[in-house]
Amino acid sequence: MKSAISRCAVAAVLAIASLMFSTSFSSAQSLTLACATGTGEMGVAFSSALVASGGVPPYTYSVIAGALPPGLSLDPSSGDITGTTTTAGSFNYTANVVDSANTSVTVNATSRSSLISR
Questions:
Q1: How many CB atoms lie within 10 A of CB 112?
Q2: Are 118 and 43 a contacting pair, CB within 8 Å?
Q3: Which pLDDT tens digit goes with each residue over 68-101?
Q4: CA dihedral in degrees (68, 62, 38, 111; nearest 10)?
Q5: Which CATH class is domain 32-114?
């Protein structure tokens, strides 16, 4: 009888582990990437962010084509875009995010920097 209880206990543990494993994969959402927002003003500190959701964190962000306005930089870990723009204009770039499951998403974006009128 002792071996029957042990087999039942092992079967129950395996069933629970299997359920937990399958639930963690089925609950993952598709990876998405939202563009940074706002218009920067030349010579004024700017802060915005690329925002990923879904997928499997952590995420790694990059600009794979084009460029952010001169003076701005992207933090690859957080997606934060910060700095002080040095040139007015529109700057097209392609942003990319990769999650820890190596899934990637790209978006085309435009960042704008304007002159300050005082």
A1: 14
A2: no
A3: 999 999 999 999 999 999 999 999 999 999 999 9
A4: 30
A5: mainly beta
